[in-house]
Structure formats: structure tokens, C-alpha cells
């Protein structure tokens, strides 16, 4: 299995994943570098196709553009798309270290996990707020990470949906202390504590981080420092 870019165990300090969806696209590399220097452990790249979610966003070229100036920074790619099987190879080739795909579009989640691992990436399984956690629990052993959406996917800046924390707790009980659980959507210093208490050890931050004047302070607050 591929080496995980999410090295911190659940018993340690959570990893903050800087979601570049809210970064300054005119200065993307500089903004991403500043977030990493401030303590972000990975770059989170949200890919949206206008079908699975209403918005359109980044493609493999963004991974490649960030890989050049930041060659050692892990790239965590979240594929919010209808046809991930047709796209995972291009993202892996562009520099992705981790690929998360949505349970809602998969006929065979285990086969998808195998396909991602064959490309040298770690694999995550994501679920939307309306999706029962049981469908992920059935296949979580095939994946390296579970990604819990705490907003309806599509746009940055939505408020955090605290009801999804029950899913996180169920996943933590099933995965044990060493598994990686990522919370994505509306995560801010005010909601990060409840995410950590529910078992999350990877916290995605978009507008809370890149909308701040002090990246380091936000990252420290998210991680519980």
C-alpha cells in the first residue's frame, strides 16, 4: 500500500489541510507556500465537475503547477466528480499523493481503492451529509482515509453542519486509533474542537484559513494548539 501523506496518528496533533479553493488564484503558489510555512501539513485540492456538484473548479494542471514550486508538499485531491475512474490517472500523473472519491458515485468501492493504490496514491472514501455512514463502514477497510463532508459540497464558506459528528464518531470506533478521518466543510476554530473530540485527525480549512490575516494563528487554533 502507498505511503500515507497523512503521517500524524489520531493520538497526535491533527493535520491541517489547507484547501486552496479559497486561496488567491492570482498568487496561488505563494499563498499555498505561506499556508505550509504557517503549519499546514498538506494542500487540499477540491475538484468539482459541475455535475456531481453545481460548481466547477480545478483540474490536474493545478496539481502540476503546485508540484513544481512545492515539490515536497503532499497533495490531497478531493474528487467531487461523477466519473472518478476516468480521472484518477491524470491526477496521479500530475503530482497527487492522495485521492479521495465519493461513495455516492461508486459501483465498486473496493475496486476503486485498488485502482488508486496501483497508481501509487493513497485512497480516501468520502460521503456527503445526507449519506448514511453505514455504506462507508462496509468498505472502509479498503481505504486509507474517510472524508466526512460537513457541508453540502460545491462552494466554500458554508456553515458547519454539526450533525455529521455522529458519523465521525462511528468511523473512529470502526477504524481504531490509527485510522485517518478528515472533516471537510465549514471547519473553523469554533468548530474544530468538536471535530477533534469526535475523532477527526485531518481538518480541512478553506475560507477560515485563507480569509485570515494570520495563517499560523488559525492553523494552531484548528489543531488545538
Please tell me about this protein's structure.
The chain is an alpha/beta fold. It has one domain (15-223): Alpha-Beta Barrel (TIM Barrel), CATH 3.20.20. Helix content is 32%, strand content 19%. It contains nine helices and eight strands. It has an eight-stranded parallel β-barrel with strand order 1-2-3-4-5-6-7-8, surrounded by six helices. Strand 7 (180-184), helix 7 (189-197) and strand 8 (202-205) form a beta-alpha-beta unit. Helix 2 runs parallel beside helix 3 (88-94) and helix 7 runs parallel beside helix 9. The termini are far apart. The model has no long low-confidence stretch (mean pLDDT 92).
Question: What attributes characterize this protein structure?
Answer:
225 residues, alpha/beta, TIM Barrel, eight-stranded parallel barrel, 9 helices, 8 strands, globular
Brief rundown of the structure:
This protein has helices at residues 28-37, 60-67, 88-94, 109-118, 134-137, 165-175, 189-197, 207-210, 215-223; strands at 15-19, 42-48, 75-80, 98-102, 122-127, 145-149, 180-184, 202-205. The protein is of the alpha/beta class and 225 residues long. An eight-stranded parallel barrel has the order 1-2-3-4-5-6-7-8, surrounded by six helices.
